[in-house]
Amino acid sequence: MDVLVTPTPKLQGELQALSSKNYTTRYLLVAALAEGTSTIYYPAHSEDSDAMRRCIRDLGAVIEEDDEKITITGFGRNPKDVKELDVGNAGAVLRFLMAIAALAPDVTFINRYPESLGKRPHDDLIDALGQIGVDVTHNDGKLPITIRGGAAKGGKIQVSGNVSSQFLSALLFLTPLLEDDSEIEVLHDLKSKVVVGQTLEVLTQAGIVIEASDDLMHYKVAGRQKYEAKKYVVQGDYPGSAAVLAAAAVTQSDVTLHRLEENSKQGERAIIDVLRMMEVPLTHEIGIVRVQGNGKLKAVEFDGDKATDAVLAMVAAAVFAEGTSRFYDVENLRYKECDRITDYLNELRKAGANVEERQSEIIVHGRPEGVEGGVEINAHYDHRVIMALTVVGLRAKQPLRIRDAHHVAKSYPIFFDHLKALGANVEWIE
Ligand SMILES: O=C(O)C1=C[C@@H](OP(=O)(O)O)[C@@H](O)[C@H](O)C1
Ligand SMILES: C=C(OP(=O)(O)O)C(=O)O
After folding, report:
1. Which among 127, 211, 360, 405 could disulfide-bond with 3, CB atoms 3.0 to 4.6 Å apart, if both were Cys?
2. Interval between CA 192 and ligand 1 midpoint (Å)
3. Which ligand is the nearest neighbour of the Cα of 122?
4. Domain range for residue 258?
5. Whose CA is nearest to atom 4 of ligand 2?
6. Where residue 323 falls among pLDDT bands split at 50, 70, 90?
7. pLDDT reported for residue 149
8. pLDDT value at position 430?
9. Closest by CA position to 373, among listed 389, 386, 355, 388
10. In angstroms, what CA-CA distances link 82 with 60, 129, 175?
11. Is the CB of residue 92 below 6 angstroms from any atom belonging to ligand 1?
12. What total of structural domains would you count in the chain?
């Protein structure tokens, strides 16, 4: 299904931010790894979080859910002997469960999105699992992937953090359950380092003890630990909200978003600082963000690795800023649902933006006068490309037709409902 985004000068209203995808996937996982019954309040509902629900159920977790909460009775360190798992297009879910599959005899992760997740590399995790005796069969580092665990015992592990932090997070979820103690050393750089803070926070909440160095490059993990069954509350989602806030920033607006904690460990919280640096009028108090956009934005320079999943929304805002913006240290955007540098900038150019790419940088020459629009956008299976191009479409001169915009459901199924509620001219079309 496509979405037609028609220029919209004004946005107004109040919304509850959706629930965090990254916390939901983590809480679902640690609840599954516990032996008792955990409760998660306000879990996210999206394709990625549903993928984690489906897979932990397949692995033996017992799940009950109502409108407010989900209760999960976990399988501890003894997942069911399942032959196949389908993670949809969810990278984090795949990587976390590739590690957990080391507790099972023989699991194959199927390839349902050959053009998206099917192209993403997992070599660094495959290599790390090999170091603790896990046998992995793969298609040149990509899906389909078969994990034969059983023999995994723990020990010294080196893992590269160059491509994704998810490989390290995956090992941090697995190693406490192994027979032997483990020591994990991160090689090279650690990309998206902030997200590892969310992993450690959730592990601590689940009663797991991990000794982490201050730079997050070394870990000592005792084996034979037990995940405790707990009660968790999912906070609001900054990456998805970043797109709504960017939409408010590029229009004449008065938009309020609730449930966005000031002291959240989500790096994408930086959307607030970046919009402030761009001189967008906003306030952020007691979890409530209010943007009163006047359509005027100033260019910005920002280390995008600190807020990986909000960079596309920030770039969309910069398209209309006065001056040249630069988002640096963003190379790992190339290994996401699509190449979020080359593919994304191609779509922005089609819409009329003036953008340049470097291997690890996005440069935006702002056009405060607006962009032309009037074209069809290829979504590249990427929810964040869809949301960012929607922001651009609101301030284009002609409508943008975003092809296959239903992929927004990977993280934010009600994104267009939310924008509509604020007065945006967005319509689903066949
Ligand atoms: O651990 C996680 O839940 C995530 C880590 C990040 O990925 P990378 O570490 O690959 O950048 C982020 O982009 C992704 O959306 C979710
Ligand atoms: C990249 C993302 O997710 P994942 O890596 O889990 O597919 C995302 O949500 O933007």
Report:
1. 405
2. 7
3. 1
4. 2-18+236-429
5. 91
6. very high
7. 86
8. 85
9. 389
10. 9, 19, 21
11. yes
12. 2
Nearest atom (ligand 1) to Cα of 239: 15
| Same domain assignment for residues 12 and 58 | no
pLDDT of residue 150 exceeding 80, the answer is: no
Based on the domain organization, do 63 and 179 belong to the same domain? yes
Per-residue model confidence (pLDDT) at position 255: 98
273 is catalytic: no
- Same domain for 110 and 49? yes
DSSP string, 32-92: HHBSSEEEEES---SHHHHHHHHHHHHTT-EEEE-SSEEEEE--TT-----SEE--TT-HH
Mean pLDDT on 298-308: 98
pLDDT, mean of residues 261-278:
98
pLDDT in tens, 31-79: 999 999 999 999 999 999 999 999 999 999 999 999 999 999 999 999 9
Report helix, strand or coil for 278. coil
Q: Whose CA is nearest to atom 1 of ligand 2?
A: 336
Choice between 152 and 394, residue whose per-residue pLDDT is larger: 394
Average pLDDT over residues 107-132: 98
Domain end, chosen from 178, 200, 233, is at 233
Query: Using CA atoms, how far apart are residues 233 and 34, in angstroms rounded to an integer?
Result: 17
For residue 295, the CA-to-ligand 1 centroid distance in Å is 31
Which atom of ligand 1 is the closest one to the Cα of 95?
A: 1
Sheet holding 84-85, edge to edge: 84-85, 107-109, 142-148, 135-139
Catalytic residue among 124, 237, 309, 382: 309
Mutate-to-test residue for ligand 2 from 50, 164, 337, 340, highest number of ligand atoms within 8 A of CB: 337
Q: Are residues 123 and 75 in the same domain?
A: yes
pLDDT of residue 152: 87
- Ligand 2 pocket (Cβ < 6 Å) reads 48, 90-92, 309, 336-337, 384, 411
Strands lying side by side in the sheet with 182-187: 156-160, 182-187, 218-221, 210-212
pLDDT class for 151, splitting at 50, 70, 90? Answer: confident
Ligand 1 neighbourhood includes 195 CB (under 6 angstroms): yes
Using one digit for the tens of pLDDT, what is the confidence trace for 383-424? Answer: 999 999 999 999 999 999 999 999 999 999 999 999 999 999
CATH number at residue 176: 3.65.10.10
How many angstroms separate the alpha carbon of residue 169 from the centre of ligand 2? 14
The answer to whether 120 is annotated as binding is yes
